[in-house]
Amino acid sequence: MNERNSPYFRYAYNALIKDKGVNIALAVLLILSAFLMVTGSMVMERSIGSVDQLFEEAKPPHYLQMHKGDYDPDALTRFASDHPEIDAWLVEEMLGFDSAAIAWHRPSTGESGDLADSLIDNLFVTQQEEFDFLIDETGAIPQASRGEVYVPVAYQQSFGLQAGDKLAIRTDTGIHDLRIRGFVRDSQMASSLSSATRFLVSEADFQELGRAGGGTPEIIAEYRLTDPSLASEFQRAYEGDKALPKNGQAVTYQMIRLVNAFSDGLVAVAMVFLSLLLIAIALLSLRFVIRGTLEEEVREIGVMKAIGLPDQAIVSLYLSKYRVMTLLACIIGGVLAVIASGLLTRSIQVNYAQAPVGLTTILVPVLALLSVYLFVIAICRGVLRGVRKVQVVNALVHGSTLHERQTARHAKRQARRARRTSLASYRGRSISRRLAFSDLRAESGQWVLIPIVFFLGTVLMTLPLNLLSTFESPRFVTYMGAPESDVRADLQFSKDVDSVRADVLSSMRSDGQLTQVRVFANELYEIQEGEGWETLRVEVGDYSGATVEFLEGGRPEPGQIALSVLNANRFQLSTGSKLTIRHGGESATVVVSGIYQDVTSGGHTAKMQGEVTTGASGYVIYANTVDRADPAAVAAQYSERFPAATVIPMREYVQQTLSHTTGAFRSAAIMSFIFGIGVAVVITGLFLKLRLTRERRKMGILSAIGFSMGEIVAQVKGKALLTMAAGTLLGLGFVATGGESLVGLFISLAGLGIANLSFIPNLLLVYVAYPVILVGAGYLGAVVLTARLHGADKSLWLRA
Amino acid sequence: MPHDDHVMLESRDLAKTYYSTEPPTQVINGVDLIVRKGEFLVVMGASGSGKSSLLYSISGMDRPTSGTVFLEGRDLTSLSDVEMSRVRLTKMGFIFQQAHFLSNLNIRDNILLPAFKAAPKEKDAAVARVDAIMERFGIAHIKQHGITQVSGGQLQRASLCRALACEPSILFADEPTGALNSSMSTEVMEALTEVHSDGTTLVMVTHAPACAARADRVIYLRDGRLVDSRQLGRWSKEQSTQREDDLLAWLRKLGF
Ligand SMILES: Nc1ncnc2c1ncn2[C@@H]1O[C@H](COP(=O)(O)OP(=O)(O)OP(=O)(O)O)[C@@H](O)[C@H]1O
Ligand SMILES: [Mg+2]
């Protein structure tokens, strides 16, 4: 059969050409849905492929158990010989250093910094021989020579490290220098959810670091099994044996895989979710369109039925249009997805491995597209089944898709409404407005779509914006665990840090541009946690002046300590709790004075009242500028005089510290703005287009009676404006009330160190500009759509 | 040309072309027409000859492609949309083959709508006038009914009431009996004849010779051109059969 000449093809072609606006809007929705669905599934496939590839190369253990402190090696040997399902096993020794104790330096440019913003444990290890290898960027198993270190790829990215940079590790007995030779991927700890990461050093350096002190020794007992699926059974056996070391985390192969795939697949999951949402919107619109078409063409359907065409054939005829449209959308969405997924999987490829292209690489997106196509077509077919209910007589005589009983019910409802809203008693001034309102009431079931879309659009657009403006606000420093001041100087540990501190302090105190110079020392304390000791970063200094805002409690007096939210949660402490800490071999018991929010240093900080002595791992100096001094200029001046110190205006510090987060929020804000406006305009346009088609008769009547086209169009625009504004206002109401707690919940779950977020919104943008833009865009759509009505021959709307 | 006081409506060299088709269809082709005050004019012709197009072009619902239309000496084609709709509201009434009503208003509200629109400050007077009109045409008892709860004949009489609500000078009707059975059809034609005898000018399109026989004059349209016209004189019930036979003979000659 010649496809082009088939009646279905011709019907589809004509139908697509006829209603261009509606069809384009529908196609856009479908393309977006298909695009997101395929991109999501491709990113997932690539992530899983990358993880698998890395696993292939690195051979992670099937079961691992972490442990801190002493253990009995003989028990491990005995256990291994008792369990024949063990293929291989090893005990990896590691040395943990706090990220504040690791600094980097680039000899070629003099740039430097530390890793303090990283909130995960840094474990120094040597390369293994049998399994659980650290893999370099080429997929090979590197060996570190003396004086060299391989750094995790995650750090390469977040701190911008390069091969050749120097790494300085602060030990109890001095600074141990290493040169970065390259970067490694870690199959166990690659996930962004992992709480630790591994550095590869030579055996000699490992021994030296151990002797130097300052690191926390840890071990992992690792097992490869003959069959990975035995892992959970094996775990039970291991945990049942009292003699084995096990005071740390235990992880099975399946969990490593799951965590790896999940954490970086989160974006993909979000995309698939968003795609499902869009498909739902697209299907709602499709249903609306198809119903409208059926009602409009009911006489044709009646005729087709009368000449004996089977229902199935009529359905296929109408379906052909949507088949063509959905197919096109899937193809376009698919092509776009190939481009987008390449960009999105780049970081996954770096953290894991280059996934090989295989059959599934092709199959997954194709299956995703196929399922979108089949699902949309199935729903369309379902709606089109309405054709079956059309009765020939009713269709031909009354032009109604309803059968008799429905017609009667419909008539009764209409009559009741007509009686209730009597125009005869109306004494208001604008009959046009009155008509628009009674229309809205009568057709509320249809119009409600607009407020819903605008409500969602408003919420979608303003929440990320509120987050962004909150994080960018200078007032945000109080969330950051830092006093509100103008200039901040950071001194990282170095051999002469104490003398630099003294110099900076004395020149600041004698500087007429600066007042209220305060210094705080960053000390690494240890806190007792169960059987072992954990590192606790404490800022020691004078808190008697203005300091940070406390969520509960207040500033620390001598013998007290204030904790950040994340630390309070981690150690399950609240105001008034006692805890034991030690520093330099001396233990002390202190009381928690209060809890504050902090987003610096990964959110895990503490504050203690005390004298700033020498020998701290670093110092922070805050100062205020006097009236007319420019903080930026002062900061620049000090940076130049003291190259070892990082002196920046507080405002810039906020921006820098949060640049990752605000960057993400900014992208989210931009994306959601475009998405919100786009979807709102497309849906409004689609809705009005269909509404206008269905209201042609009503418009014809009004025109014949003597309403001008301007008045008739104003009714439509008024209804649109009213419903759009109502939805937007509801959205703003929600954002102002529930939105904050919703986002707050999300933020506290994200572990940023903020438990109690109050928006610092850009009022003008959120409550004036955004709503005006959103409603304005929708209104513009209405203006464009109704503009065409003016030149029309109105009588055609009334002729059958 | 000076305006003749006896002329209600006049078209000169009127043409209408639809551009939505390929090639464009010219459906009215240079029609010169004069409708006198108080006249009952019927337009006849084969299906597709352009009767409706002519009716809506001279009544300002649609814009003619070229030519001019005068209503009581006023050039309608030069009016703005707002002015034209004011003319439709106050000077014209419309009746269609299908009774088109707003479905969420009851019968009386539908009829009140143009009256309220025309004189928003005199709503009480409008209500009284509309009630009187409905009484006159025998539909006062269905005032509160919904539009789907009355018969076709009642609905078409309601259309007539709405068309008369603002006391128009001219009434346009496009096959007002086309969708009705013969008894309902007579009902509606009786009402129209009554309106005509009150002095309202009437222009009606119809296929039914029995309806056309009530006119003062019948014109015949073919392919958008006025090909013939026939003066029938004042209608009287007694002569109805004879007038109808006479009209039929004329129509047959024209190939109707
Ligand atoms: N919107 C339109 N676009 C193109 N052509 C049209 C349109 N409406 C009507 N026509 C054509 O114009 C011509 C005249 O149509 P019109 O409706 O005026 O005829 P009519 O005499 O009223 O016919 P009927 O007796 O069937 O009502 C017909 O040939 C018709 O096909
Ligand atoms: Mg017609």
For the structure shown, list the relevant keywords.
heterodimer; A: 800 residues; 4 domains; 25 helices; 22 strands; globular; B: 256 residues; alpha/beta; Rossmann fold; six-stranded mixed sheet; four-stranded antiparallel sheet; 10 strands; binds adenosine-5'-triphosphate; binds magnesium ion
Number of domains of chain A: 4
Rg measurement of chain A, Å: 34 Å
Give the mean pLDDT of chain B: 90
Please state the CA-atom Rg of chain B, rounded to the nearest Å. Answer: 18 Å
Write down the domain tally of chain B. 1
Distance between the termini of chain A: 36 Å
The overall pLDDT average of chain A reads 82
Helix content of chain A: 40-55%
Uncertain residue ranges of chain A: none
Give the overall silhouette of chain B: globular
- Quick one: biggest sheet of chain A? 12 strands, mixed
Oligomer: heterodimer
CATH superfamily of chain B: P-loop containing nucleotide triphosphate hydrolases
Helix content of chain B: 25-40%
Number of helices of chain B: 8
Largest interface: A-B, 42 and 46 residues
- CATH architecture field of chain B: 3-Layer(aba) Sandwich
User: Which small compounds were modeled alongside the protein?
Assistant: adenosine-5'-triphosphate, magnesium ion
Structure report:
The complex is a heterodimer of chains A (about 800) and B (about 260). The model of chain A has no long low-confidence stretch (mean pLDDT about 80). In chain A, strands 1, 2, 3, 4, 5, 6, 7, 8, 9, 10, 11 and 12 form a twelve-stranded mixed β-sheet that branches. A six-stranded mixed beta barrel of chain A has the order 14-15-20-17-19-18. Chain A is α+β, with helices and mostly antiparallel strands. Chain A contains 25 helices and 22 strands. In chain A, helix 2 runs antiparallel to helix 11 and helix 15 crosses helix 24. Chain B is α/β, with parallel strands linked by helices and about 260 residues long. Chain B contains eight helices and ten strands. A six-stranded mixed β-sheet of chain B has the order 6-7-8-3-9-10, sandwiched between helices. In chain B, a hairpin with a 6-residue loop joins strand 1 and strand 2. In chain B, helix 3 packs across helix 4 and helix 3 packs parallel to helix 5. The longest helix of chain B has 16 residues. The two termini of chain B are about 35 Å apart. The model of chain B has no long low-confidence stretch (mean pLDDT about 90). Magnesium ion binds next to helix 1 of chain B.
